[in-house]
Design goal:
The protein is α+β, with helices and mostly antiparallel strands. It has helices at residues 27-58, 75-104, 209-218, 229-241, 277-285, 310-322, and strands at residues 111-118, 121-125, 131-132, 135-138, 143-149, 154-158, 163-167, 173-177, 183-189, 202-207, 264-266, 272-274. The protein is built from six helices and twelve strands. A five-stranded mixed β-sheet has the order 3-2-1-5-8, with no helix packed on it.
Length: 323
């Protein structure tokens, strides 16, 4: 896996003027419903506005004493303009409920991945118990996502797959998809969740079956060549901490990590603390226990090992020492 510092930002592949590239089995069904609705609206817009312009010109009163038409209704016309839209609405409802039902029911044997959202990143836990900072899935194989949030409401949105689902704290929501093309695409948060909402981006890597099996077997690393703690910590920083903590001294949501190791920090209660191994671990597991003065209470907890394991915490500590 490439170094996150060198990994390009996730992007959406554009397929047309209107919509992103369709990359899942849901895409055609969603796109068909969209285009049907679009052109029905365009047709009625042209019909209604065209008729309005025509009648405004054709029947404009030319003299003050000119009488208007005595016709006040047309039964046949009223039946037509009531029946045709009703039939179209029933058809659109059928398209919508059919797509909704398909999206709600994952096929038996779908590969399950647990997704956790929190300000402001996504983390992914696989059946083996291992976790990853980006989403890896096999092509042409159903994948079921079981999702929850550690803090506020987020919304898991993959435009190319045409899937979107709210992720709510204290409950689980699910969605599923089958990716139809290999490559990378973006995961976005579609529910405003705070200052870092626009940066809550991640990547879906759609792999051929053989490569995905290799990824699962190796858990992102070659067991024969494990990552050093510093490299592991840098990878975790880039995927999880970078949104709120800079390493160049820039002030963002949280304190900068530049020169942080061994630094004396003043807490909001007036006490001072030295940034060491114990402080970093406590800050990750209980971030509201020791908040640095002048910064908001926005950092979520990383106590869930599916989000941050002990090896990740040790890696972050090692990485901070290098700064």
């Amino acid at each position: 896996m490439s170094d996150p510092a060198e990994t390009p930002k996730p992007h959406i592949n554009v397929d047309s003027f209107w919509l992103p590239k369709p990359s899942s089995t849901f895409a055609k069904e969603v796109d068909d419903a969209y285009y049907i609705t679009l052109w029905i609206c365009v047709g009625f817009f042209v019909l209604v506005v065209g008729a309005m312009i025509y009648f405004a010109i054709r029947y404009k009163r030319k003299r003050d004493d000119e009488r208007t038409s005595p016709v006040d209704h047309n039964f046949r016309l009223e039946v037509i303009w009531s029946t045709v839209p009703a039939v179209l609405l029933v058809w659109l409802f059928y398209l919508g409920i059919k797509g909704y039902a398909n999206a709600e029911t994952a096929p038996n044997g779908a590969y399950e991945i647990h997704v956790t959202g929190q300000m402001w990143n996504w983390s992914f836990s696989y059946p083996s118990g291992d976790s990853a900072d980006e989403l890896y899935v096999p092509v042409n194989r159903p994948v079921k996502l079981i999702m929850t949030s550690n803090d506020v409401i987020h919304s898991f949105f993959v435009p190319e797959f045409r899937i979107k689902q709210d992720v709510v704290p204290g409950m689980y929501s699910t969605l599923w998809f089958t990716a139809t093309a290999t490559g990378d695409t973006a995961v976005e948060c579609a529910e405003y969740c705070g200052d870092g909402h626009s940066l809550m981006l991640n990547t879906v890597h759609v792999l051929p079956e053989e490569e995905f099996d290799k990824f699962v077997a190796n858990h992102l690393e070659d067991p024969a060549h494990p990552l050093s703690p510093e490299v592991r910590g840098e990878k975790k920083y880039n995927s999880t901490c970078k949104v709120c903590h800079s390493i160049d001294g820039t002030r963002v949501t949280g304190p900068t990590f530049k020169g942080v190791w061994g630094r004396q920090e003043t807490l909001e209660d007036g006490n001072t603390i030295t940034v060491d191994e114990s402080y970093v671990r406590r800050s990750l597991l209980d971030p509201q226990g020791q908040v640095v003065q002048g910064y908001p209470h926005t950092m979520p907890t990383f106590a869930d090992p599916k989000v941050m394991s002990n090896r990740d915490i040790e890696g972050i500590i090692a990485f901070l020492k290098t700064l």
